[in-house]
Design a protein that fits this description.
The complex is a heterodimer. By secondary structure, chain A is mainly alpha-helical. Helix content of chain A is about 60%, strand content about 5%. The chains are: A mainly alpha, B mainly alpha.
């Protein structure tokens, strides 16, 4: 298993996660919890808002994954199987997501995206609430999408459980991962290449696009809406 | 400082993204459901012990197990038919309103809601057969009956409005109707088990 990143030099506290990455992370965690709670307490309307907010986060995070800070970019952390294997053998040093953790990030983002997609075309069993795109499909499809939406939540739960277990495992081995996701800083060996931050105005453009996209979906995705 | 600004902007923007009214849950554009399932009407009237009046039979003499299972079946089919009609209504009211579909389904819901008076005699709870009807229905029979009457009133109001050409009023009555479904289901229907 991976050994600690601790070669040479004193550990310096450096920036690892920029603000957008941390905000997306914690908002996503909170909104997933809220989505679960609201739908089990008869607040289907809040559940739909929550899903739309998650859609905004997803779109933003994907864009930020191309134009954000160095540790936010997919190109910096999504690696092939050889890098994952090397990491497993302890041959990896760097900041941000390690090659194995990267797979977890991708799986979680993809699973949440599938869940949002299913929710968008779902309707509740009484026909009182329709997802913003439910009108684009038939009643039967909407009902099936709702069933899948319920089942798929288990996939998300499993990935979240794996994520938490991994954090617990690293903690036992002396690496604290939670605090850096709050403060954005972590002690890193000197000589480690620091995070290159993104531009704040690019973050705002990404956010504007994510909100615009979400509002378009909420409007029923004209001109495709019948 | 800069990051604080960005944080604040993100927070505002996210709030803005969520800033759509509950009513917009109803505004998804819809094509009309092509659901041709037969309504449960015929089956409902086939229940031999169903009283002719609209009075609730909550406190009637407990039915036999056979009768109970038959009524529960009719209830299940009836509720499903009402759900289908509501879904068709929702789609027909969204986007370009489809008056013919709205009228036929509003009538169907009104009719089924009247029949619902006969669907909940004592002895048709989860102890007798598979049902999501909670025992609380028979512990609060007056409250339940009040909620059922609210459904019937809302369904009649929608049916009446559907004969006009006032789509805004139909949407308002449909929202009222949904509220009466939800008021009862939230309290008296158990969660679906998979």
């Amino acid at each position: 298993m991976p050994r600690q990143v601790s070669r040479g030099g004193e550990a310096l506290t450096q920036r690892v996660w920029d603000l957008p990455v941390r905000l997306v992370h914690w908002l996503l965690a909170a909104l997933i919890a809220f989505s679960w709670w609201s739908v089990h307490h008869h607040h289907t309307d809040w559940h739909i808002w929550s899903g739309c907010a998650i859609l905004t986060l997803l779109v933003f995070r994907i864009l930020w994954g191309f134009v954000g800070s160095s540790t936010a970019r997919f190109s910096s952390f999504v690696r092939g199987p050889r890098a994952v294997a090397a990491y497993w053998r302890g041959k990896w040093s760097g900041i941000g997501h390690n090659p194995l953790g990267a797979l977890s990030v991708l799986a979680l983002l993809a699973a949440v995206a599938v869940q949002v997609g299913l929710g968008l075309v779902s309707e509740d069993e009484d026909g009182i609430f329709m997802g913003p795109l439910a009108g684009l499909v038939s009643t039967d499809t909407s009902d099936k999408a709702r069933d899948l939406h319920e089942l798929w939540f288990n996939v998300i739960l499993a990935l979240v459980a794996l994520h938490l277990l991994a954090i617990g495992y690293y903690r036992l081995r002396g690496r604290k991962l939670t605090l850096p996701m709050i403060t954005g800083r972590a002690p890193l060996p000197s000589g480690t290449e620091a995070m290159r931050p993104g531009k704040w105005w690019i973050a705002l453009i990404c956010l504007g696009f994510a909100i615009g996209f979400t509002r378009w979906i909420i409007a029923g995705a004209p001109p495709f809406s019948p | 400082m800069r990051s604080t600004l960005v944080a604040a902007a993100c927070a505002c923007a996210l709030l803005a993204a969520c800033n759509w009214k509950a009513g917009q849950a109803n505004s998804a554009q819809g094509n009309i459901s092509q659901d041709n399932r037969p309504p449960a009407t015929a089956k409902a009237s086939a229940v031999t012990n169903a009283p002719a009046s609209n009075e609730m039979v909550m406190l009637a003499v407990p039915v036999s197990k056979d009768q109970a299972l038959r009524i529960m079946h009719v209830r299940h089919e009836g509720m499903e038919a009402m759900g289908d009609a509501t879904k068709a209504l929702h789609r027909a009211l969204s986007g370009t309103p489809d008056l013919a579909t709205i009228r036929s389904n509003a009538a169907k819901v009104a009719q089924l809601s009247e029949q619902a008076s006969t669907w909940f005699p004592a002895g048709t709870g989860p102890d007798v057969g598979k049902t999501r009807a909670k025992p609380a229905i028979w512990q609060n029979s007056e409250d339940f009956a009040t909620r059922l009457r609210a459904l019937q009133t809302a369904a009649r109001a929608l049916e009446t409005t559907s004969k006009s050409n006032d789509v805004a009023a139909m949407n308002a009555r449909f929202a009222d109707l949904g509220g009466t479904c939800k008021a009862c289901h939230d309290k008296y229907r158990a969660e679906e088990k998979h």
